[in-house]
């Protein structure tokens, strides 16, 4: 008989603990109440998680590409690969061109990381490509340029990488000719071109 009393007491105690736990959890405060996550961000335990690579900030309020849309102007340092023959090398002299413009335009994707990039040397179109921003932070983003044909009528395949921030942009490009034994590979470096 005594064991039945203990079992009943134990059962009542277990039910009381379960009821108290249910009551406490049903009255706990919603950590996401009052938290607004923008640009498809999701609130988790009171903090916004930005699911898209192109957004950031406490509430996913920053769309990085909006900070970069503009023209960046600067110089291009141009160097060439070398041949064994001095006669072939003589026409290709390393030099610097001024009046280069890198233009970033906004894409229409919902991940907020695609941009259009175009590069002109003076009035000469050199490259048009679609890029995807990577490694986004408040201080800037990086990107890669897949192998793309150069400007109109160009037969070189241009690829490389770069970085962009709200104040400057840089490009490192390699232009590979269709006949590398006749024409050298060209390397373009545009460093710290200020935003206009």
Shape from CA axes?
A: elongated
| Lateral arrangement of strands in the main beta sheet | 8-7-6-5-13-12-11-10-9
Ends: how far apart?
A: 91 Å
Give the number of DSSP strands.
13
Structural category is alpha+beta
Work out the strand percent: over 45%
Give the helix/strand layout:
Blueprint (H helix, E strand, L loop, with lengths): L1 H25 L15 E3 L2 E3 L5 E2 L5 E2 H5 L1 E11 L5 H4 L5 E12 L7 E8 L2 E9 L1 E4 L2 E10 L7 E8 L3 E9 L9 E9 L2
Antiparallel strand pairs: 1-2, 3-4, 5-6, 5-13, 6-7, 7-8, 9-10, 10-11, 11-12, 12-13
Characterise this structure.
This protein has 196 residues and is of the alpha+beta class. The protein folds into three domains: 1-27; 31-60; 68-194, Lipocalin. 17% of the residues lie in helices and 46% in strands. It contains three helices and 13 strands; from the N terminus they run H-E-E-E-E-H-E-H-E-E-E-E-E-E-E-E. The strands form three sheets. The protein has a nine-stranded antiparallel sheet with strand order 8-7-6-5-13-12-11-10-9. A two-stranded antiparallel ribbon has the order 1-2. It has a two-stranded antiparallel ribbon with strand order 3-4. Strand 6 and strand 7 form a beta hairpin. The longest helix has 25 residues, at 2-26. The radius of gyration is 29 Å and the shape is elongated. Residues 22-26 have low confidence and may be disordered.
Give a nutshell description of this structure.
The chain is α+β, with helices and mostly antiparallel strands. It has helices at residues 2-26, 64-68, 86-89, and strands at 42-44, 47-49, 55-56, 62-63, 70-80, 95-106, 114-121, 124-132, 134-137, 140-149, 157-164, 168-176, 186-194.
